[in-house]
Recover the amino acids of this structure.
């Protein structure tokens, strides 16, 4: 095993990575607690329970500078301190494993590859704030993760790492899994708690913050899976160890799910402060088929697109926000010259419109109207005034929405408008889609390479193609539904998309 | 939120299904926040949540039917309509989308002659554009029940469907 690891470490994909949250994923057998223990598992819990007071645990996390890895970047230790300060017999620890960001799968990987790490961290959190019960809210779309976490919980109970008087201390802690049912808004902390309570997952007004009044009205700490995965190593290696990695305000590492138009896809854990260029060109191995890089999308539906001129900015929470994007949960989707940025903005708004819970008007109606503008643009029916109105609407939605979903929903539009305005203008002024994606603005034309084989004519689903055998064919644009079948099947490259 | 469509297929739940459900509900009704787990169990038994099943849940948990309906329609995993024997789910997460998942969904809709979210008349296939299934390295990806097809193109769709057309 050690030798395999050594070889892997030398590959381009691995050599610039630094694995903390993912340290055991793919290394140990996740269904065997002994393997986790052999890799220092449950040592941090033993240390916390036998050597440290709850305040000392919280201080260590505070000193380390760890910030929430689920997107917001709120200091974890500060959050724990708020909950510790509350005087209440009943408190809860929750884990957000409802990885809703399309294109991010680091939480799934940790749950499937290292489930004991989450149990250990949540038990530590329970000790630190004085909670006896924890809930893991996990996506129903991840059945393997649910199964492995369930196995891990059973094993941990058998070994006495969960339950009563853990390690002979007074600390008692139990864990329960709750399944999400597919609602992106449940990634928002108050919505997630409302959902665990068995209701429609609608967010609540903050304050009161969950640390004061959270799950079932009790003080609650809620962290993301990746944040929890950082806790055991911090306690074992000390706050200074994490501080030694990263930038001034963002410490440690971050896992990104590298995907899209890139040669090496997968999970990438890098020290904060690494540049996007390193991630894309060196770790990711660049763009396939010699295509040109256009943008990197971070933060999913709440984030934005970062263009080529900003690839050398060191990645951390604050720099990404300054660029009009955000860290989010760590989806990193690479796009090349064949992707239309207006279409991407439309894709995200279509998502947020569907996923808006409907509780507040700015988000419910705002995202619908925003999507209508984008549809108008991609259909070539918009005016330049629409572009300005759309930008103004974005600001209203940002300012007036109740929760993070609405407040960040316009980001994909604003960031693409900022960096790729000329693409929007091409749709509006010239009625063309430069990337050749927006179907309403496309036309398929037969060129002179056509030998009249009639294959496309036979395959066209709407009989839009006419022409006799061995004669050049013709596509009737009135009938054409722009499905692209003709272009795909033509063996002579005789059909152009314009 | 899209307008709610209700199935016209008559409910044909069996007595043993109902007994199983009531047994499960006896546990979930004592959980704090047990309504969602109840609906999840019910959908596992029946495959969908027709009004008859929602009524049983409301009855057992002593909550209003309106509350049950409110939750069943809020979460995208719950379906009020019966699903096909083969459930085709095309991932339309970002990584899949930038690699052409939209075209794949369109192509399947065209081949099956149904819209996304619908079921074929013979009850064989249902089609859905689904949220990210978390295997972006395989993008674009689709699943048919438990079978996963990764790195597919729209030209592969006839071949994928042919695997299920025989029986």
């Amino acid at each position: 095993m050690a030798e395999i690891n050594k070889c892997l470490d030398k590959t381009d994909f691995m050599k610039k990575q630094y694995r903390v949250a993912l340290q055991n994923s793919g290394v140990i057998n996740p269904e065997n607690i002994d393997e986790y223990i052999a890799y220092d598992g449950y040592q941090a819990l033993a240390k916390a329970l036998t050597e440290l007071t709850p305040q000392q645990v919280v201080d260590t996390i505070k000193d380390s500078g760890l910030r929430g890895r689920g997107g917001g970047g709120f200091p974890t230790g500060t959050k724990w301190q708020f909950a510790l300060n509350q005087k209440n017999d009943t408190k809860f620890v929750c884990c957000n494993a409802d990885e809703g960001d399309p294109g991010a799968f680091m939480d799934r990987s940790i749950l499937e590859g290292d489930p004991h790490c989450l149990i250990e961290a949540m038990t530590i959190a329970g000790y630190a704030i004085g909670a006896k019960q924890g809930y893991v809210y996990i996506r129903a779309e991840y059945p393997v993760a649910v199964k492995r976490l369930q196995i891990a919980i059973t094993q941990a109970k058998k070994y006495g790492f969960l339950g009563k008087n853990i390690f002979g201390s007074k600390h008692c802690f139990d864990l329960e899994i709750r399944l999400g049912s597919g609602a992106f808004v449940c990634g928002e902390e108050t919505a997630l708690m409302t959902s665990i309570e068995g209701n429609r997952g609608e967010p609540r007004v903050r304050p009161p913050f969950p640390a004061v009044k959270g799950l079932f009205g009790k003080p609650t700490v809620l962290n993301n899976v990746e944040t929890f995965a950082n806790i055991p190593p911090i306690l074992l290696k000390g706050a200074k160890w994490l501080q030694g990695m990263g930038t001034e305000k963002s410490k440690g590492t971050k896992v990104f799910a590298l995907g899209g138009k890139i040669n090496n896809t997968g999970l990438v854990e890098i020290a904060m402060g690494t540049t996007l260029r390193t991630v894309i060109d060196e770790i990711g191995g660049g763009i396939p088929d010699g295509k040109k890089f256009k943008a990197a999308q971070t933060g999913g539906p709440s984030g934005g697109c970062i263009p080529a001129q900003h690839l050398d900015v060191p990645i951390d929470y604050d720099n990404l926000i300054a660029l009009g994007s955000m860290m989010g949960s760590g989806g990193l989707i690479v796009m090349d010259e064949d992707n239309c940025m207006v279409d991407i903005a439309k894709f995200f708004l279509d998502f947020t419109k569907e996923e808006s819970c409907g509780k507040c008007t700015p988000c419910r109606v705002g995202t619908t109207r925003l999507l209508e503008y984008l549809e108008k643009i991609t259909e070539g029916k918009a005016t330049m005034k629409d572009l300005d109105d759309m930008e103004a609407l974005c600001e209203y939605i940002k300012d007036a929405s109740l929760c993070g979903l609405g407040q960040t929903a316009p980001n994909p539009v604003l960031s693409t408008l900022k960096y790729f305005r000329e693409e929007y203008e091409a749709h509006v002024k010239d009625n063309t889609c430069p990337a050749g994606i927006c179907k309403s603005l496309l036309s398929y034309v037969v060129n002179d390479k056509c030998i009249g084989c009639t294959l496309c004519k036979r395959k066209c689903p709407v009989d839009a193609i006419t022409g006799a055998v061995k004669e050049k064919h013709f596509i009737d644009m009135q009938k054409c539904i722009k499905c692209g079948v003709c272009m795909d099947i033509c063996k002579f490259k005789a059909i152009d998309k314009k | 939120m899209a307008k709610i469509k209700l199935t016209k297929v008559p409910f044909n739940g069996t007595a043993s299904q109902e007994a199983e459900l009531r047994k499960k509900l006896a546990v979930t009704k004592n959980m704090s926040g047990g309504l969602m787990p109840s609906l999840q169990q019910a959908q596992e038994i029946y495959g969908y949540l027709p009004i008859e099943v929602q009524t049983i849940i409301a009855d057992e948990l002593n909550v209003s039917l309106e509350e049950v309906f409110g939750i069943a329609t809020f979460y995208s995993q719950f379906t009020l309509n019966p699903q096909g024997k083969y459930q085709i789910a095309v991932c339309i997460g970002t990584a899949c989308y930038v690699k052409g998942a939209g075209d794949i969904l369109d192509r399947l809709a065209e081949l099956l002659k149904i819209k996304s979210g619908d079921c074929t008349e013979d009850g064989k296939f249902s089609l859905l554009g689904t949220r990210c299934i978390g295997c972006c390295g395989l993008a674009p990806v689709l699943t048919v029940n438990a079978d996963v097809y990764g790195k597919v193109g729209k030209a592969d769709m006839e071949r994928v469907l042919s695997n299920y057309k025989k029986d």
Summary: Residues 82 and 391 of chain A are 38 Å apart (CA to CA). The mean pLDDT of chain A is 95. Chain A has four domains: 21-243, 253-336, 341-429, 443-497. The domain at 443-497 of chain A is CATH 3.30.70.20 (Alpha-Beta Plaits).
